[in-house]
Amino acid sequence: MLSLIVFLPLAAAVALAAAPRLSDTVARWTWVAVAALDLGLIAVLWARYHTPPPGELAFAERATWIPGVNSSYHIGVDGFSLPLVAMTAVIYLACAVYALRERHRPRAHAALFLFLQSVSLGLFVAADLILFFVFFDLSIVGMYFVIAGWGHGNRAHSALKFFLYTFLGSLALLVGFIGLYVAATPHTFDMPQLTATPPLQGRPLAGGLVLAAILLGLAVKTPAVPFHTWLPPAHTDAPAVGSAVLAGVLLKMGTYGFVRIAMPMLPQAWRAWAWAVIAVGVVSVIYGALVALAQSNVKRMIAYTSVNHMGYIVLAVGVAGLVAADTAQARGVAVAGAVTQMVSHGLITGALFLLAGVLRDRAGTYDVHDFGGLASPAPAFAALFAVGAFASLGLPAFSGFVAEFQIFTGSIAAAPVTAVAVLGILITAALFLRALQQVFTGDTAGASIGFTDLRAGELWSIGPLLLLSVLIGVLPRPLLDVIEPAAHAVVGLLRR
Amino acid sequence: MRPLLLLPEILLAGGALAALIGGSFVPRQRQWLVRIFTAVVLVATIVAAAIQIHSPATSAFDDSFAVDTATGMARILAASGTLLILAVAADEISGSARESETYALLLFSTAGTVLLAGANDLLALAVGFLLTSIPLYALIGLAHTAVGAEAAMKTYLMGALFGILLLLGVTVLSGLTATTGYAELTNRLTGSPRAAVTVAAVAVITGLMFKAGGVPAHFWVPDAAQAATATAAAFLTTVPKIGALVAIYRLAVVLPPSSSWPVLVAALAVASMTLGNLAAFWQADPRRLLGWSTVSQVGFLLVPIAVAGRSGLALPSLLVYLTGYTVTNVAAFAVSAALPRRRNLADWRGVAAGRPWLAAALLVALLGLVSTPPTAIFVGKLTTATAAWDGGSAWLAVVVFVNTVLSLFYYLRWIAPAYRSRESTPEDREQARLNDEPPRPWSARLAVAAAALSLALGVTAGLLWALVARQ
Asked: What is the ipTM of this complex?
């Protein structure tokens, strides 16, 4: 079942790529149909999901792959991966609907995104380090072609920078994985085994170095300051759907790695370096927000708010390493908030990037100063953008609030000094309000004149993402019931 | 004696002779008969080797030739590599004046490679070295161009120099121990003066680097890859390496570690990968770029040898990497051979739009050379790096991955234009003419098949591993 979910899009991608006589319309709708079918299968999976016993995975499947180095095709889901799998499928479906108007080589476009969907789903269900790395690396290759093939502006340069930078990160990650393998007895790449008996316990230097390699790899992908410099050009020059997938799904691969690999497999090293992680998180929050404040390009601004939002996650997972008996509950809440933030940021930022794509589609520019009074010619666009902006700054009744509230409750209880990161929320609020005011209010001027409002396809792709964000904000329980057991379990593992 | 153990080598050498003599009696437009014959010989070699690889390890001719998994894999890989390259020859030299001679030379050199791989005796090693080198000079020179002649001359001079170095090392080793067989070498070397053993080890291993095409004997590789025919270029950057690297491995495990061969091999590995990568950065000719890339690949291939005897993964990972490398490198050269007039990276603009399959093969081959998963080289690089770390050289694993990042840049310089759209500008009449040129059919088929094979080998790496890890 799980393998079917992962490889169904890949099979469709191969079929699309190999069938040259297919008309563009058929290709576009095939993508939508496959993405919808995959989401349906995941809904069935979620309905049948019960929290697995500690140290195990639900719907696990296993087959030998490279027996010589004890690497196997091992997949399964738990409270961390299931919400991300579902979020991934939702975002890809939204992109499929949005891309129904794609005019540039739609067949190859659909095939590439279906390939990326398989890769993203595969990463979140992987229970073997090498399998994880395979998908991690392929996501970079896929995104390179999205930016280089369908981007705009200085796309070749941005794509190259993205590829080189994140490839460096992925190989640092692989070095760390090999370190874990060599240190483990018996040697293995299997995640549940490595989690059950963490290697490198009591070897602070080796443990620290392996953790450093893994953290470097994950921090580049997340991205955390100071490894974020590939992100703004990649986002600015990527197509709208590419940005939505990059921010919504691919960035989560980094943060997911923290809770799935770094924390449970290197608990001692993680505790030793918890303050460094917290510092990186706080700097990312403040720096990301401040730089976003200075942008006049809407897409760049959203890109930097991603750095800010990922900073909250890094902060929360760092706080989880400050082990003390009386804060276990609080740290569990922080980790649950971090995972909720991954889902929430995927939905909201995905929607915001698609909305930014509409700006470029209509007016050919992302600059806030080119617009004014856009609310009157495009009320639906204005409404959705306002909803997205408020959701992103963490207003109550949106998923962002649920996530950030938990992160701060947990973090401040465990380490009061982390309260400085609340400044980040304040700055994001200011920058979104300023952008809303600049673009939508006042007299209709500049590029706003003759701006066509959202079309059906755009409405039906962006609307559901924001609706889900509201739904999670109002009724967070079903999601939290899945996440919380895993979050508290990982906090328990960190005590070892 | 048991000559049947050497059936694959007998087939290759006998086939080469038959092709050479038979070719002179076949009219020029019927030379394809010789090609078919060569292919049959190679298939028979592969079959014989595949049957033999399942029997327990043994040796032939008074223990001077080892018949084990490493030899078996080298036989299969060398013969398969040559067999694949025949497809390039089918397009390129079909009906040319020196067709059957080329096939004979290819078979002779393949036989030499296999002899090198199985050599368990210093004299067998020297014979293998010469048998695989001499046909190469002729193969490069067959291009009949000024640059081809220069490349052949360069190769010949390098080959002569490093051949003498190898013979010097062989002489010192046999002088110290009064034997040439590997089996006795380890014991008798323990009491020998350390400086002499070190000099001999450096001489033999450096001499073999000529065949492997690695630093410091690499200067002929980019020139030959650029100037020779695609057939010869694909062959000389792929097949001789198999024999040379297995030979270095065999030699390394019998030399005493006090001769500091691990440091030497590790240093050669780092120098080859780094120099190969840096030199490849700004190459404009795709063949020359591939030539430098093979220098860096030799560096990666030397990594498991540097920890030979210290990690159980060393030999299996070397053989897995060699398998992946053979298939992937042939695929990359086949793509270049399919569109032979595009000898500048800029000429590859828009190939993906007109020739999607060929562009896909290029993508898989080059990303495979970067070791992007799940291609075969990825499994090779993963296991070799793991072997390095396991053998106590974690720093070598880190160097491997730093160099992998470096290598990505120049492979992307080839992939990027191929996937860029063709925007027609007035001065691009030459480009339009290139776009109308149909790809050479057999090379194109080979490129797609080899690229698919490199993917399949990566996905089914467990089967390959089970084969190479047999004791």
From this structure: 0.92
B385–A178 CB contact, under 8 Å:
yes
Please report residues of A whose CB lies closer than 8 A to that of B465.
66-68
Q: How many angstroms away from the CA of A182 is the closest CA of chain B? A: 6
Contacts of A290 (CB under 8 A, 6+ apart): A427
d(CA A253, CA A265): 17
| CB atoms inside a 10 Å sphere around CB B279 | 19
Residue type, A336: A
% pLDDT > 90, chain B:
74
Predicted pLDDT of residue A196? 93
| Cβ-nearest to A67 among B401, B412, B462 | B462
Average the pLDDT over each of A54-63, B37-46, B117-126, B252-261 and give the range with the smallest value. Answer: B252-261
Closest residue in B to A66 (Cα–Cα): B462
Interface test with B, best of A3, A131, A138, A167 (most B CBs within 10 A): A167
From CA B123, how far away is CA B125, in angstroms rounded? 5
* B154 alpha carbon, distance to own chain's centre: 19
B401 near A CB under 8 A: yes
* Residue B108 in this model has a pLDDT that exceeds 60: yes
> Max Cα separation, chain B?
75
Counting every residue written for chain B, the total comes to: 471
pLDDT of residue B35: 93
B373–A145: do the CB atoms touch at under 8 Å?
no
Confidence (pLDDT) at B471: 62
**Measured between CA atoms, how close is A268 to chain B, in angstroms?**
21
Q: Do A179 and B389 touch (CB under 8 A)?
A: yes
B365 CA: distance to closest CA in chain A (Å): 14
Measured distance CA(A359)–CA(A349) in Å, rounded: 15
Decide: B88 and B230 in contact? Cβ < 8 Å. yes
* Facing residue for B383 by CB, picked from A68, A160, A182: A68
| pLDDT at residue A198, as a whole number | 92
Mark yes or no for CB contact B401/A172 under 8 Å: yes
Nearest to A178 among B386, B404, B466 (CB): B386
Residues of chain A under the 50 pLDDT cut: none
Token readout for B355 is: 């020739």
pLDDT of B180 > 70? The answer is yes
**In chain A, what residues touch B452 (CB-CB under 8 Å)?**
none
The domain limits of chain B are: 262-471
pLDDT for the residue numbered B428: 63
CA distance B243 to B251: 12
Classify the phi-psi angles of B213: left when phi > 0, otherwise alpha if psi is within -120 to 50, otherwise beta.
left
CB B400 within 8 A of CB B381: yes
> Before A53, cis peptide (omega within 30)?
no
Q: What is the residue type of B428?
A: D
Cα A303 to chain centroid distance, Å, stands at 12
Angstrom distance (rounded) from CA A51 to CA A79:
7
Give the pLDDT score at B379. Answer: 95
Q: Which amino acid, A321?
A: G
Q: Cβ–Cβ of B398/A175 closer than 8 Å?
A: yes
Q: A182: which chain B residues are within 8 Å (Cβ-Cβ)?
A: 386, 389-390, 394
Q: B341: buried, middle or exposed (CB in 10 Å: 19+, 13-18, 0-12)?
A: exposed
pLDDT at B354: 84
pLDDT at B425: 56
Q: Read off the pLDDT of residues B120-157 as tens digits, 9 standing for 90 and up.
A: 999 999 999 999 999 999 999 988 889 999 999 999 99
Report the C-alpha gap between A472 and A481 in whole angstroms: 12
The pLDDT of B171-186, averaged and rounded, is 90
Q: Which two tokens stand for residue B139?
A: 């193969």
Binding-face residues of B in 441-460 toward A, CB within 8 A: none
Q: Rounded to a whole number, what is the distance in Å from the CA of B65 to chain A's nearest CA? A: 27
